Amino acid sequence: MWNITKNTLSCIPKNVRSIKFRYGPTKNLKTTSTDFVQNNSTTEPLHPGLKEMKWVNELNYFKEQKYDILPIYRVLNHSGEIIQETENPNLPKNTLVKMYQKMVLLANMDIILFESQRQGRISFYMTNTGEEGVQIGCVAALNFDDLVFAQYRETGILMYRGYTVQNCLDQCTGNIDDKCTKGRQMPVHYGSKELNYVVVSSPLATQIPQAVGAAYTFKIQKLDKISCVFCGDGSASEGDFHAGLNFAATLNAPVIFVCRNNGYAISTKVNEQYAGDGIAARAPGYGIHVIRVDGNDIFAVYNVIKYAREYALKHNKPVFIEAMTYRVGHHSTSDDSLAYRDANEIEQWSEKGIVGGPIKRLRKYLEKKNFWDDETEKKYQTECRKNILSALTKAENKLKPNWREMFGDVYHKMPEHLREQMKEMENHLKKYEKYYPVDQHAK
Amino acid sequence: MRTLRGNQLLNQKVFENLTLVFKNYKNVRFSSHFTYVPDEKSPVSGETAKMNMFQAINNSLDYTLKTDQNALLFGEDVGFGGVFRCSLDLQKKYGKGRVFNTPLCEQGIVGFGIGVATAGATAIAEIQFADYIFPAFDQIVNEAAKFRYRSASQFHCGSLTIRAPCMAVGHGALYHSQSPEAYFAHTPGLKIVIPRGPIAAKGLLNACIKDQDPCIFFEPKALYRAAVENVPVENYELSLGKAEILVEGTDITLLGWGTQVHVLREVGILAKEKLNVSCEVIDLQTILPWDKKTIVESVKKTHRIIIAHEAPLTGGFGAEIAATIQNECFLHLEAPVQRVTGFDTPFPHIYEPFYLPNKWRCLEAIENAINY
Question: What part of B 313-372 touches A (C-beta under 8 Å)?
Fold first, then answer.
């Protein structure tokens, strides 16, 4: 695991070389703020606002460009070869095949649902293209009980845990089998209590401090689980990101933060999003253990999450992971990304491109191991498409829930005023039913 | 003054001189716009103890932490007892793991609380002043209120209660005086509760904590010390969504909540003395969902209503009630619904006596309604 060590200090004036950098909570820190110690000596600073400090007598700003850039941890090279055998997670064949299959399934579902939105069959969609590796590498390293707080581009996690294509399509079409949102939320706002994946909401970054609260509760209740929260490079600019990291660090919550840095927040490039060294470099400022990882390298993601999980549970501390990747698809079906970026740039990151996506890289590895071949690939791809298309047709043919579901679950028990409003709508429909799509809804 | 005397820093003579100086001093703070009337009726039989409102709240929190091992209490400065002493001694009793300070960040406090509640534990979050709840507006309105609905009840944060001191305090100016209940009343999924004194505070806070929907409990800070009642020692809950008729009357209904209830009680007495008008005084208690039935029945009896709140007029919760009364009691009304409220300005410092919907402005509204 990567740590900021001595070489980070190259930028500090010689006379303050003795500063002990405390990036990463690896040491027990003494605080002067809570434990008052009588000290008449003026040789060392006593300010309660700092942990341990030394005076310096020459003016030297700590310049931002002198920090060492956090390197990107990787295990697989672009040809699907293990670079350093000690880092090989040595996952069993069935796990590897499952990881690969879920990525391929997700990629196929993305293609078909993106197109079906274009045909007006669903109202909205967001693909995961290029970021399947972050999702699957992460979920494979988590325990099933660990509570996931997603942003919206993490569908692979749910699928790996057992969410079916039919579940996704029932939610996207908002039909009577949409147990997730009862047709109340936009497509892609999935979630499942059974699969320990909190239902997604559109407001960005709100899930970050929430995940910290849940993790803190697991700690207090001595449950052997953590929470894992996702955000993008864009939502890391929200105030809730700051809130979540600072709360997690000060309250010692066993939570893993995963930031998918895919280069864009809709049309906004990262250079308009932040001026520092990505998102990861912020974590040490909060006193949080951090690593940057190649998000297209499923083994690298797996390894960092595995370590983070153990670390978080053992020390009751948060861990921050910045997964570097690229958003190959448009932001959503409401976006044409060619309006703000070059087609060649997208091409190089696509599965067929020079850099390539996470799927191709794992496939190459699997082929070398003789766990997968062209024939299996062809068969599996066909099977995926068949299943997705049949699920789409099924989802489209199902009725929508009864319109009265619009009034349900606002409160635990329906209050009187809502009952009155529902009654009012009932009476209205008796007269004006023909102007409403009542046939599409269950009676 | 009590502190000074207690510390014996001043002898009696000096103290008397000082009191005299204050009496003659013309710019002395106009800090008490109401006369507190303690509740006599006890909601449960049994032993009672004299408590002010912060002690009653402390009592409720203590009971929750004692009986619910999953309950957590947190916010800015709650560890040492809170800036209004509501969490006094609770950290000592229940440990830093369950009663703790958070960093100074309201959106974090509420987001964190939602997470605690989502994980199934009881979360009691404190926002230091209702004026500072706005950074958490997104977490409250977009997240807490909609959690159950958007996930078809798979997830919810029903065990979250947010407590915050609210309303005027004599000198709180713009950011220590606000009554933001109407902002939240526009949000389906929330419950909003405001008590008028210690007995109500204990019972309603207990109900909020136990309730399976996210609740905001606004505590009128002027009452923390000023309001003293004989509060039942035993635990009890008061129903949410229920208004309480405090004084029965026949000529006009006076409706308010929080500190304003005490203004209205006094107005009721003034109206009887000066105008021979019989007032029915009602404490709404729960702003959302509010007790339409009790209010409508009262207006059908008295044919007139005055709604008084400290918050500004435009978009205030009085508007919601007025519109509903107009709808439900159209044929019974003998005067337009009167609203006596704060003005449509920010809450001012030195002008507070002119800003508040005090007893004289309420009395004038009664005159207008009766003579209409």
Answer: none
